[in-house]
Design goal:
It is built from 4 helices and no strands. By secondary structure, the chain is mainly alpha-helical. The protein starts with 8 loop residues before the first helix and ends with a helix.
Length: about 70
């Protein structure tokens, strides 16, 4: 299964903490924490932040895809 699209709800769920998950890749946790803080500061940036998260997870897909699939 490929990484979900930028419009998939999993990205918003991570940013809004509707889904809480500690990733095995430490940098993934940092990326999600950054997105959470940025979203709280400016919710209108949701699409941009979702794109940034997806790009990060795409870069490290080999490590993160199984965990993202479990969250979906």
């Amino acid at each position: 299964m490929p990484l979900p699209s930028v419009t998939h709800s999993v990205w918003e769920q991570l940013m809004t903490r509707k889904v809480k998950h500690t990733f095995s890749l430490f940098a993934a946790n940092m990326a999600v924490d950054h997105a959470i803080r940025a979203y709280q500061a400016d919710p209108s940036q949701k699409a941009k932040l979702a794109g940034e998260l997806r790009n990060f997870f795409s870069k490290y897909e080999k490590f993160t895809l199984p965990e993202i699939e479990r969250l979906m």
